[in-house]
């Protein structure tokens, strides 16, 4: 048993601390949710209430009350926290074998009625917060901590895997389908078809999500938003604002304001560029 897995904290002792851990495959977030506008994330979105139920509406459907909910990648939804903060996890779809996922993730489309999973996720968050070293060296370690097992890995054709690695290594570059097709020795139409078949998402959607996702590495910085827009690959602040709002349902100004007191941890190229791997802000 891992050392920090022996720690148990009663729910009454949970601290209202804002924290985010991320690498190229997962995001853990505990913090403010913002206004209940439509958001469309490119990953499996898992929402966990800390104490009070939240409400969620998927694809414009009826509102559901839930303490645990799941939204598949690319599905628009709105969510309202029942308290000041919420706990959420993002699982990048291209990293997992979707049919082999735990049923509550694979078949999730809104509220999930699973008391055992809810309790396990809350307990895992408490152990993470209490651990002297808030880090996971590998995605598998993160999965085992929060899900009790390493989520099954998706097998992807080697040429498409190289494209994925290229985009995720530098999500802010203006990688075109034409360039990727040439690198794969394929026509553009064949490349786009193969990419979607292997990844489960269109090339443009995946690239757009990865760029918007890279914004998360910068949310604790106090730099001018126009400069951050350029740093993450947007041509100007207007495109930056439009894209961020489409994905997260928030303007960059609101998003960054809500993350000022956030402790940020993580591994990966983007993290090292934006924060310094594994370092929390002062």
Provide structural commentary:
A hairpin with a 3-residue loop joins strand 1 and strand 2 (26-31). This protein has 2 domains: 3-147, Jelly Rolls, CATH 2.60.120; 158-274, Homeodomain-like (Arc Repressor Mutant, subunit A). Helix 5 crosses helix 6 (188-199) and helix 8 packs across helix 9 (237-248). The protein has helices spanning 103-106, 115-130, 139-147, 158-169, 177-183, 188-199, 203-214, 225-231, 237-248, 252-257, 269-274, and strands at 19-22, 26-31, 43-48, 54-58, 64-66, 68-71, 77-80, 86-92, 110-111, 263-266. The protein has a 7-stranded mixed β-sheet, covered by helices on one side. The chain has a 3-stranded antiparallel β-sheet with strand order 5-4-7, with no helix packed on it. With 282 residues, the chain is an alpha+beta fold. 37% of the residues lie in helices and 16% in strands. The longest helix has 16 residues, at 115-130. The protein has 11 helices and 10 strands.
Key attributes of the depicted protein:
seven-stranded mixed β-sheet, Jelly Rolls, disordered C terminus, 282 residues, 11 helices, alpha+beta, Arc Repressor Mutant, subunit A, disordered N terminus, three-stranded antiparallel β-sheet
């Amino acid at each position: 048993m891992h050392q920090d897995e022996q720690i148990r904290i009663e729910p009454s002792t949970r601290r209202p601390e804002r924290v985010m851990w991320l690498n190229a495959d997962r995001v853990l977030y505990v913090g403010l949710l913002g206004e209940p506008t439509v958001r469309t994330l490119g990953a499996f979105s898992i929402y966990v209430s800390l104490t009070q139920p939240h409400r969620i509406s998927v694809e414009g459907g009826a509102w559901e009350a839930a303490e645990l909910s799941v939204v598949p990648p690319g599905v628009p939804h709105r969510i309202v926290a029942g308290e000041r903060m919420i706990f959420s996890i993002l699982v990048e779809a291209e990293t997992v074998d979707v049919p082999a996922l735990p049923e509550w993730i694979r078949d999730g489309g809104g509220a999930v009625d699973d008391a055992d999973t809810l309790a396990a996720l809350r307990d895992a968050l408490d152990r993470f917060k209490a651990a002297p070293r808030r880090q996971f060296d590998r995605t598998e370690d993160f999965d085992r901590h929060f899900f009790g097992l390493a989520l099954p890995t998706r097998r992807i054709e080697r040429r498409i895997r190289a494209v994925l690695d290229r985009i995720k290594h530098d999500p802010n570059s203006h990688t075109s389908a034409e360039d990727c097709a040439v690198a794969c020795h394929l026509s553009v139409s064949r490349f786009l078809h193969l990419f979607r078949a292997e990844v489960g998402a269109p090339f443009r959607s995946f690239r757009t999500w990865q760029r918007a996702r890279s914004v998360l590495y910068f949310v604790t910085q106090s730099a001018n938003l126009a400069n951050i827009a350029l740093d993450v690959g947007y041509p100007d602040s207007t495109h930056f604002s439009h894209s961020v709002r489409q994905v997260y349902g928030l303007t960059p100004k609101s998003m960054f304001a809500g993350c000022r007191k956030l402790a940020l941890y993580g591994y990966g190229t983007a993290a090292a560029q934006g924060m310094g791997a594994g370092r929390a802000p002062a």
